[in-house]
Specification:
Radius of gyration of chain B: 21 Å
Distance between the termini of chain B: 47 Å
Order of helices and strands of chain A: HEEEEEEEEH
Oligomer: heterodimer
Structural class of chain B: mainly alpha
Largest interface: A-B, 25 and 32 residues
Number of helices of chain A: 2
Structural class of chain A: alpha/beta
Strand content of chain B: under 5%
Largest sheet of chain B: none
Helix content of chain A: 25-40%
Distance between the termini of chain A: 98 Å
Largest sheet of chain A: 8 strands, mixed
Shape of chain B: elongated
Strand order of the largest sheet of chain A: 7-1-4-3-2-6-5-8
Chain lengths: 155, 259
């Protein structure tokens, strides 16, 4: 009887340990606590070129992550890429004339959306569209322009 | 020539017969799972012998795999000046592949063989027949609790392996090599996703591997030739087949999950 009890206790400890490990992986490694809120409000922005932007890329304001990209699609009417992003409800005072740019973190880093706040008094709501956008820097294009300028100027 | 063809035919017939028997056996085991609800003690005892007793080897291997990942990852990443991503590299590779696969291989060696040998010797010493004589169904009494225990224990062991591995990588990277502790965790936390990495990797792979290993182990034991040689051959087959099954399934699951 004593043995059974001891065994049951060790099994209990084992299961608790396993669940604790899973919890640690969820909380500490996947950082569940930060972006569980998918109930942020969603805004749209149209870009001529999204470059290598990916779904779940961060949306940053002043370097602070305020949301995530939740969807990238192509609008066949406007011939532009439409990026839907979900903004954390904590940041609900973003002016309506905020500009969205696609930046690259570091030389080889991933791309993210940087928001630059405008001066309007009204704040963005769910479903709004960001009017001012600047596309991703495509390296080939930049090089092309650079070389073109060089060849035009030199002779 | 004809003999050769006959041998080929016999071999493939035997193979498919065995495969069929394995599946029928699985169905019978699944059908007898209901009996476990009335006797949870049997399950607890089996979780103890498959899960708790495998804990030591899982924790130690997890720590060393994590530490080696930390060392190797650091050496590679530092050439690109990206050693801050060490946490991400360690966590992703452990969560997605190394954690579930290595713990499944260890589990097959540590617990799967024990299951096969135990059931095989029960058969060889006619304990299973004796049970049938007493109108006790050995599938319900012996096989079902062992089958379920392995499925319960395997994802837990994979989670422990992975968690210990991440800590091992932290110890090596941050403690010994001087990676910044803050960026170790923040890089990891910003890129590792709960559903995609943790649930897909550790939980789903763990359950699938646990089910396959325990199915192979109990079937080999139950189907073993009831002699000492037969049991030893069955034990060997358990390790070989379940390791191959784990590696093959891992490839398929990875292809399905991370595309």
């Amino acid at each position: 009887m004593q043995d059974t009890r001891k065994m049951e206790i060790t099994v209990g400890v084992f299961v608790a340990l396993g669940l604790a490990a899973l919890l640690m992986l969820a909380m500490k490694v996947a950082n569940l606590s930060q972006f569980t809120s998918h109930d942020g409000y969603e805004v749209r922005a149209y870009f001529d070129n999204v470059g290598g932007l990916q779904v779940r890329a961060p949306v940053k304001m002043g370097g602070v992550t305020v949301g995530r990209v939740v969807g990238i699609g192509y609008d066949a009417q406007r011939f532009q890429a439409v990026v839907r992003m979900s903004i954390d409800p904590d940041y609900d005072h973003i002016p309506t004339d905020t500009a969205a740019n696609i930046y690259t973190a570091g030389l080889l880093g991933e791309q993210y959306i940087g928001l630059e706040p405008g001066g309007e008094d009204t704040s963005l709501k769910g479903g709004d569209e960001l009017q001012m956008t600047q596309s991703a820097l495509v390296l080939e294009k930049a090089l092309q322009e650079f070389l073109y300028n060089k060849t035009v100027k030199s002779p | 020539m004809i003999d050769l063809l006959a041998g080929l035919g016999r071999g493939s017939l035997a193979f498919f017969e065995r495969l069929g028997r394995g599946h029928l056996f699985l169905l019978r085991v699944l059908a007898s799972l209901g009996a476990l609800l009335t006797r949870p003690r049997l399950l607890i005892k089996q979780i103890w012998s498959t899960g708790v007793l495998s804990l030591v080897i899982i924790v130690i291997s997890g720590a060393f795999v994590g530490m080696v990942l930390g060392l190797q990852g650091y050496n590679t990443l530092v050439t690109f000046g990206a050693e801050e991503s060490l946490g991400l590299v360690v966590a992703k590779s452990l969560l997605r592949e190394l954690g579930p696969v290595i713990s499944a291989l260890l589990f097959a060696g540590r617990a799967g063989t024990a299951l096969t040998a135990e059931i095989g010797f029960m058969k060889a010493t006619e304990q299973l027949s004796a049970m049938e004589m007493m109108a006790v169904d050995p599938l319900k009494r012996i096989v079902a609790p062992r089958f379920v225990a392995a499925i319960v224990a395997m994802p837990l062991l994979a989670a422990i392996f992975t968690a210990v591995g991440v800590l091992g990588g932290y110890f090596c990277g941050v403690g010994l090599l001087g990676v910044d502790a803050g960026s170790f965790w923040s890089q990891m936390q910003s890129k590792v996703l709960l559903m995609e990495d943790v649930v897909n990797g550790v939980v789903i792979k763990g359950v699938v591997f646990g089910a396959v290993i325990s199915w192979i182990a109990v079937f080999e034991g139950y189907d073993a030739v009831p002699t000492s040689e037969g049991v030893s051959a069955a034990t060997t087959r358990t390790v070989v087949h379940s390791s191959l099954a784990v590696l093959g399934l891992d490839f398929i699951l990875t292809g399905l999950m991370f595309n």
